[in-house]
From TrEMBL:
GO terms for molecular function: 3'-5' DNA helicase activity; ATP binding; DNA binding; hydrolase activity. This is Helicase POLQ-like. Residues 532-724 form the Helicase C-terminal domain. Residues 39-48 have a biased composition (Acidic residues). Its EC number is 5.6.2.4. Keywords: ATP-binding, Chromosome, DNA damage, DNA repair, DNA-binding, Helicase, Hydrolase, Isomerase, Nucleotide-binding, Nucleus. It catalyses: ATP + H2O = ADP + phosphate + H(+); Couples ATP hydrolysis with the unwinding of duplex DNA by translocating in the 3'-5' direction. It comes from the Eukaryota. InterPro entries: DEAD/DEAH_box_helicase_dom, Hel308_SKI2-like, Helicase_ATP-bd, Helicase_C-like, HTH_61, P-loop_NTPase, POLQ-like_helical. It comes from Neophocaena asiaeorientalis asiaeorientalis (Yangtze finless porpoise). PANTHER family: DNA POLYMERASE THETA, PUTATIVE (AFU_ORTHOLOGUE AFUA_1G05260)-RELATED, HELICASE POLQ-LIKE. Single-stranded 3'-5' DNA helicase that plays a key role in homology-driven double-strand break (DSB) repair. Involved in different DSB repair mechanisms that are guided by annealing of extensive stretches of complementary bases at break ends, such as microhomology-mediated end-joining (MMEJ), single-strand annealing (SSA) or synthesis-dependent strand annealing (SDSA). Possesses both DNA unwinding and annealing activities. Forms a complex with RAD51, stimulating HELQ DNA helicase activity and ability to unwing DNA. Efficiently unwinds substrates containing 3' overhangs or a D-loop. SMART domains: DEXDc (SM00487), HELICc (SM00490). Residues 205-224 have a biased composition (Polar residues).
């Protein structure tokens, strides 16, 4: 090609047309880049294949650079009377007179027909250096196969020029709104001259004139040709603009990469649009999901009931579903597959609600690997963790795993920001908890709000212990599926004295004789073990595992010690090395400390498991039990509802939980731990009972499960009042039909108004508008209008218990008068949970000792809150106190001392010893304070007067959440990494999140003591997921900063003009 000139020639290419009017008709296709250096080679190739195509060649004359727009193309004959553009102009006039070209159907059949033609025909206007090319490409083939067949223009006007031009100006005429304004048109085309414009128009093969006529007859044109701009003028303006344009220098590699990326995005979008809900053979999921289940969980095949449940019509139609199966039946796997379908196929976010923090963390560890492999985020909403509202993701979707309380706050924030429809699925594990106290009331509120505000969100509830399913079905508008399937058969037994009976529902009294215990007891042994526990446990340990459920925490420790005193020394030899390793690791995570009971029992393979253990200890013992190093746990009932630790035999030490008689739900959950799928052929449960309890136990095993009832009214401040406050805060209507509900509503709204959380505006009566100070009257007479106050909004946004919200406000207000910042004590006091203070019983001598060790500034905090040293001294010495002091304030300050000491020392063992408190209780206090501190932070964010607390509470919440040295905090952000493990990793050189995310699991196993391969992979996966999450958040922040605001004045003005 001569330098500084333009030319017209034909070539075959596949390029994409970027004009908006064409995109509405044709599918967007991939842009292919042409390198300038290849043009001469293409010319030679075209001559080689000349025998297969019809070509028209026009002479090209060099053009001088002339500034005048009129003379720019003076020496170029393309605007002469017999030129190509003249032919175009003539053709345009002829074409407008043809009636058969007046219609054009814009459907995909045209696209399909076009794609089957010999080649796509392309109009490509390309700017290269200082030279502009106008390339008109046509690949046509005549019927006889000869070259250069002359066709009379009068025979068919479509043959005057390449057929790509026909569709070009046909579509041009279709876009009167786009091209009617010459200034807009010229601006658009001139701007396009600064970059490569690839325009692609698929057309029909011109072999058959009939096909051409049929396709062209579909083209709709306007009869008013005077409104159009002449194509000749249009092309001339374009060429003028191209010639005048200063062409920037582009990186060819960058352009090729962008083209490739554009192609991949288009293909992905087409794939998603064409097969939205079906991405593969594994229940509409890619086969990779099935492979991941084999790799991560060893699950190769689903149970029949799981397949049946997943293929239910109600599930396919996305109806709400409740399904119930015995414990260990595999309920969670069904829920996980449904969640993955929602995340990957329907591209919606998912919320999973679990009852306890420990289970949330376990589930996050298990699903993080799937998130990394399949491209979705797994976010923790438990304790002090979680953002409200959640981060709005660009591409990837999020799986929120939350406790009941955090799940409620999450749903509130989504409703408030009008994003509730982004939640495609809500899964509730242990849905029967809807009938259990204040937590049940919160769960019921959460589900009710989802049902009321989002018609597209599916709700899945699962439980092992449901009875009145019909009531729950009606509430959730759900289908029901149940099965009695258990992967391992469960046999239930009762033990009275030394006789064991099998539970048999067909028998007259519900049980039949099974066997007598065959174990020789001396008189001394009988006194030590009157319930014959040794006889029962030695039948299964050490080769199989056993769980012994005890009524109280103290009883757990006593039973574990008693068993180890009686067991023979042979038990010490079983996995001796591994047990020593467990003891060593327990010491490492506890700064050299070790519980004396565990020190005695672990060598025998026995340990206790209850809330008195720290999280680190509990996690390490659970891992040792799962690995078979420990074979016997003595535990409380909380283990049954918590982490999954199955056993060959489950023994219930007594039919009591604490001092209360066992409930059927609790009994079913405990015995459900018997039988390990894939390991045991059968599972056994043995309930030990005394003769006096026999009748009650027989009634227990024969009666149905307890019904599940609403707790909204029973739990007043955490139930119906919280519901009304949040509904008014979220501007939702309250619709009441029943009389009793009206009375409850009146009482609740009066309470909220008296607390200052709501303000009553006006009451509409038949006689007109009246301002009322009190709430009264009947449903027929009044329609109440309320709006939420600032305090009310702060309370519901912070999820503060309404029983304490006014106390919190007063305490924070009083704190502003003299906030002591010389130490953390004052802030810690303000974030100490009120409910834990009411249950506290201080040791007055310890209280006085700690008080006397305070600095003057710290003692000033005590004076500010209203507790004097004199009062504590009198209580410690047992003297009578005449002056009345608020007990809750005194108790709360005592707990503040515990937390303050813990933050200073970060050693839970020394604090436990100093305050004579169980280390597990102190850790629960710490996690409770971290969660409450997070709530107080959200509370203060809604009240401008408390601005000073915001920055302070952010840091305090972080300190309370981790309670470790600052260098360990980044490692502890990873789910499943607690203090002990974080210290091990830090000492091994893994000092940041990036280090963990890039770690090799095999190297970790060798470097870190007592770390299994599964745990190592989970830690690395969790770290990767967290790192991707943070990177994504930063990218979104950058894009948000660079994005043109939607309310930008120019945009608003132009939108008004268009309207």
């Amino acid at each position: 090609m001569d330098e500084g000139c333009s030319r017209i020639r034909r070539r075959v290419s596949v390029r994409k047309r970027n004009r908006r009017s064409l995109e509405s008709v044709f599918a967007a296709l991939t842009a292919a880049e042409l390198k300038p250096g290849d043009e001469e080679k293409e010319d030679e190739d075209e001559e080689t294949v000349a025998g297969s195509r019809r070509r028209k060649t026009m002479d090209v004359q060099p053009v001088e650079n002339i500034d005048s727009e009129e003379d720019m193309f003076g020496d170029y004959d393309s605007f002469a009377e017999n030129s190509f553009l003249a032919q175009v102009d003539d053709l345009e006039q002829k074409y407008l007179q043809l009636p058969e070209h007046r219609k054009h159907a814009t459907d995909h059949a045209t696209e399909d027909l076009c794609s089957e033609s010999i080649k796509h025909n392309t109009l490509s206007i390309t700017t290269v250096g200082d030279c502009t090319e106008l390339k008109i490409d046509a690949h046509t083939k005549n019927q006889s196969g000869h070259e250069d067949v002359s066709i009379d223009p009068e025979a068919d006007v479509l043959y005057d020029i390449p057929s790509s031009q026909v569709l070009f100006f046909e579509n041009l005429y279709n876009s009167s709104n786009d091209l009617g304004d010459p200034s807009t048109e010229e601006r658009d085309w001139n701007s396009s001259s600064h970059k490569t414009v690839n325009e692609e128009l698929p057309i029909n093969n011109v072999e058959q004139p009939q096909q051409t006529d049929e396709s062209s007859s579909k083209v709709r044109t306007s009869s008013d040709a005077n409104r159009r701009k002449s194509l000749k003028d249009h092309l001339k303006n374009t060429m003028t603009g191209n010639a005048k344009a200063q062409t920037p220098v582009f990186s060819r590699t960058k352009q090729l990469k962008e083209t490739l990326l554009s192609e991949e995005i288009n293909v992905a979008k087409k794939t998603i649009e064409s097969s939205l809900d079906d991405l593969g053979p594994f229940y509409s999921l890619p086969s990779k999901v099935r492979d991941l289940y084999v790799q991560f969980k060893g699950i190769e095949k689903l149970y029949e009931w799981q397949h049946a449940c997943l293929t239910l019509n109600s599930v396919q139609e996305r109806k709400n579903l409740i399904y119930s199966l015995p414990t260990s039946g595999g309920k969670t796997l069904v829920a996980e597959i449904l969640m993955l379908q929602e995340l990957l196929c329907r591209r919606k976010d998912v919320l999973m609600i679990l009852p306890y923090v420990a289970i949330v963390q376990e589930k996050i560890s298990g699903l993080s690997s799937f998130g990394v492999e399949l491209g979705f985020f797994v976010e923790e909403y438990a304790g002090s963790k979680g953002k409200f509202p959640p981060i709005k993701r660009r591409e990837k979707k999020s799986l929120y795993i939350a406790t009941i309380e955090k799940g409620h706050s999450l749903v509130n924030s989504l409703i408030e920001t009008e994003r509730i429809n982004s939640l495609g699925l809500v899964v509730v594990d242990e849905v029967h908890m809807i009938g259990e106290g204040s937590r049940g009331a919160i769960l019921e509120m959460t589900l009710a709000k989802i049902l009321y505000t989002s018609k597209t969100t599916q709700i899945i509830g699962m439980s092992a212990t449901l009875n009145n399913v019909e009531d729950l079905q009606e509430f959730l508008q759900a289908e029901y599926y149940t099965s009695q399937f258990r992967p391992v058969e469960l046999k239930e037994y009762l033990k009275i004295k030394d006789t064991i009976y099998e539970v048999d529902s067909k028998a007259e009294n519900g049980m039949t004789f099974s066997r007598l215990l065959n174990y020789k007891y001396s008189d001394t042994l009988k006194k030590m073990d009157p319930d014959h526990l040794i006889a029962l446990v030695t039948e299964v340990i050490p080769n199989y595992s056993c769980l012994v459920f005890c009524p109280t925490k103290k009883n757990c420790e006593n039973v574990a010690e008693m068993i180890c005193k009686i067991l023979s020394k042979e038990y010490l030899k079983h996995k001796e090395k591994e047990k020593h390793e467990v003891i060593k690791n327990l010491k490492n995570i506890s700064n050299g400390n070790l519980c004396p009971v565990l020190k005695h029992t672990i060598p025998f393979g026995v340990a206790y498991h209850h809330g008195g253990l720290t999280s680190d200890e509990r996690k390490l013992l659970e891992e040792a039990y799962s690995a078979g190093v420990l074979c016997l746990f003595t535990c409380t009932s909380t283990l049954a509802a918590g982490v999954n630790l199955p056993a060959r035999r489950v023994i219930l030490r007594a039919p009591y939980v604490g001092k209360e008689f066992l409930k059927k739900n609790q009994y079913k959950q405990m015995i459900g731990r018997a039988g390990r799928a894939g390991i045991d052929s059968t599972g056994e449960s043995i309930l030990i009972l005394q003769e006096k309890d026999k009748q009650q136990v027989l009634e227990l095993i024969s009666r149905p499960l307890e019904n599940c009832y609403s707790q909204l009214v029973q739990e007043f401040t955490k139930g119906i009042q919280t519901l009304f406050l949040s509904l008014i805060g979220l501007k939702q209507k309250i619709l009441l039909k029943e009389r009793s509900l009206w009375e409850i509503t009146v009482e609740s709204l009066r309470y909220l108004t008296e607390k200052g959380l709501l303000q009553n505006d006006t009451i509409l009566t038949e006689k007109g508008l009246l301002q009322k100070d009190t709430i009264h009257g009947s449903e027929e007479e009044f329609q109440y209008s309320f709006h939420i106050t600032k305090l009310g909004r702060a309370s519901f946004k912070g999820a503060i218990d309404l029983a304490y919200c006014d106390n919190l406000y007063r305490d924070l207000k009083k704190g502003l008068e003299g906030l002591v910042l010389e130490s953390l004590l004052h802030l810690i006091y303000l974030t100490t949970p009120y409910d834990m203070a009411s249950q506290c019983h201080p040791d007055w001598m310890i209280y006085f000792r700690q008080f006397s060790q305070l600095s003057p500034a710290e003692q000033n905090v005590a004076v500010l809150v209203g507790v004097s040293e004199n009062f504590i001294g009198k209580k410690a010495s047992g003297q009578a106190i005449r002056k009345k002091v608020d007990k809750n304030i005194v108790n709360r300050l005592y707990l503040s001392f515990v937390l303050y000491t813990l933050l200073k020392e970060t050693n839970i063992w020394s604090v436990s010893e100093k305050f004579n408190m169980p280390r597990g209780y102190i850790q629960n206090l710490l996690s409770g304070a971290a969660a409450f501190s997070s709530c107080v932070l959200h509370f203060c964010e809604e009240l401008e007067e408390f601005w000073v607390y915001r920055a302070l509470l952010v840091e305090l919440t972080k300190k309370l959440t981790y309670c470790v040295k600052a260098e360990l905090i980044p490692l502890m952000e990873v789910t499943g990494v607690l203090e002990g493990r974080a210290r091990q990793l830090y000492n091994a050189g893994y000092k940041s999140l990036m280090h963990l995310a890039n770690a090799n699991p095999e190297v970790l196993i060798k470097t870190i003591d007592h770390l299994s391969r599964r745990q190592a992979k989970q830690i690395v996966s969790s770290a990767k997921l967290l790192l991707h999450e943070k990177a994504e958040a930063l990218q979104e922040e950058v894009e948000e900063l660079l994005r043109l605001p939607s309310d930008f004045p120019g945009i608003v003005a132009s939108s008004i003009e268009k309207a």
